[in-house]
Specification:
By secondary structure, the chain is α/β, with parallel strands linked by helices. The protein contains 16 helices and nine strands. A nine-stranded mixed β-sheet has the order 3-2-4-5-1-6-7-8-9. Helix 10 (229-244) crosses helix 11 (257-269). The radius of gyration is 26 Å and the shape is globular.
């Protein structure tokens, strides 16, 4: 953890005397999130910013809950766990102020009223807006009294600051088209690099996608069961993290972390996966493992195998890794296993998750790759090839996706196929670019897909 994990709020000096605040509402929030940790994301989704909490010890309680909630066990004494985290931060210099005492934490927990949290968050937000207005007023007075006051520059500057009192800082601003031209011309003569693209690990696919995946994109990988979509998704994660040093989060709802670890090592060291599982790797295999493990160990690849992944949980994890590790790629395996929000139908719920995943990519400027199950449409066709319309449960997935890649292996249906060992990557949708079918080699014994030239 780094000291800039959270943005520190402005000091009282920035607001002048009498900074507006509601400490009672802040106290309610501090107690509520200890009792109901899901409020951290619920309130964030409604636009609440914990940086608006003016009381330092209450604000750091919120941060502690956000940090440790995933590791809290049922029946744990939460204020004690939070106290340990606060004391650790204080000891390593992360937390610049004395934390709340264990007695105060216990009392906050006992007095907590989670049902009042939305009201309290609204109060804190309104007071924060009022505080910014007061700060703007003091700044305007200072401008007006300055000997260097210039109405042509200071009045427009004050007006701009006033606009920012209530506008979300992250809100997109309108831009005149002419202001975009310089960037277009620069991109026209500057080939993409790993700084603005995420290589896929496949030469032809990278060429089709002009260098790889882009920030803000939602990429859907669709396949029928047993086609290897987890293997393919994990391969994309390996290409980014192990081969290119790009921070990647792999969210697995189907396979455990030990299984994923086996697959990663098998693919990287070219050691048969079943040998690793059976514990019968020979001396040559051990040597290959030894050569590749240092590279794997240092890779910025984070793996989570939490079986009850919801959008609020994913969003919090992404926010944390974006701030602490410069996260650029998220792979979710797979969409239909995610914890769906309450909705009138499964189709509506999946549509909402799809929309939220696209918004997640755009908001944090990352690439989100979502693995998805296809319906039985391919089995009902003679040649078995999947189509984008086969995406299960919701047409919204196709609509929200910037890129849709469908996996197809003829030998999954016909063992004696002349194309045994080959796999098609059918790029069925590519917003702003061409579509194509790219043939790769499927090496199931090494848990990987590779370019045909490599095989």
């Amino acid at each position: 953890m780094t000291t800039d994990l959270w943005d520190e709020p402005p000091t009282d000096a920035d607001f002048g005397p009498g900074r507006p605040a509601d400490t009672d509402a802040e106290r309610i929030l501090a107690g509520a999130v200890m009792v109901r940790t899901d409020l951290v994301d619920d309130l964030a989704m409604q636009g609440f910013d914990p940086g608006d909490i003016t009381t330092d010890r209450y604000r750091w309680i919120w941060f502690a809950v956000e940090e440790i909630r995933a590791s809290l066990q049922p029946g744990s004494i939460r204020w004690e766990a939070i106290d340990r985290k606060l004391q650790a931060w204080r000891a390593d210099g992360t937390m610049p102020i004395p934390p709340a005492s264990e007695d105060e934490l216990r009392q906050l927990y006992i007095d907590a009223a989670p049902g009042s949290a939305p009201w309290a968050a609204d109060r804190v937000t309104k007071k924060a807006v009022a505080a910014r207005l007061v700060a703007h007023g003091h700044a305007a007075v200072a401008r007006g009294n300055s000997a260097a006051f210039d109405p042509d520059t200071d009045v427009p500057a004050a007006q701009s600051e006033l606009d920012g009192v209530v506008r979300n800082a992250a809100e997109d601003e309108t831009t005149q088209v002419g202001d975009l031209l310089a960037g277009v011309l620069e991109r026209a003569v500057t080939p993409p690099t790993n700084e603005d693209r995420i290589p896929t690990g496949f030469m032809d696919l990278d060429q089709l996608l002009t260098g790889g995946f882009m920030p803000g994109q939602m990429v859907v990988i669709g396949a029928r069961p047993a086609m290897g979509k987890t293997t393919f998704g994990l391969g994309l994660a390996r290409a980014a993290a192990v081969h290119n040093g790009i921070t990647t989060l792999f969210e697995s709802l189907e396979m455990g972390r030990d299984e994923l670890g086996n697959s990663i090592v098998s693919a990287e060291a070219r050691v048969p996966l079943h040998h690793i599982k059976q514990g019968i790797v020979d001396d040559n295999g051990i040597q290959r493992l030894a050569r590749r493990t240092p590279k794997i160990k240092e890779a910025p690849l984070y793996i989570s195998d939490h079986s009850h992944l919801s959008m609020p949980v994913l969003r919090a994890r992404v926010r944390h890794l974006v701030r602490t590790a410069r996260l650029r790629l998220v792979v979710v395996d797979y969409l239909q296993l995610m914890q769906a929000p309450k909705a009138e139908s499964r189709q509506v719920a999946v549509s909402e998750m799809s929309r939220q995943l696209k918004l997640l990519a755009k908001e944090f400027g990352i690439t989100v790759i979502v693995l998805a199950q296809l319906n039985r449409g391919p089995e009902q066709r003679t040649e078995k090839k999947p189509m984008v319309s086969d995406l299960r449960e919701s047409g919204a997935i196709e609509q929200d996706a910037d890129i849709v890649i469908l996996l197809h292996r003829e030998d999954a249906y016909e063992k004696e196929s002349p194309r045994a060992g080959e796999a098609d990557l059918i790029v069925g949708k590519h917003r702003g670019g061409p579509t194509a079918t790219i043939t790769t080699a499927f090496q199931g014994h090494y848990a990987r897909f590779v370019d045909m030239a490599v095989s």
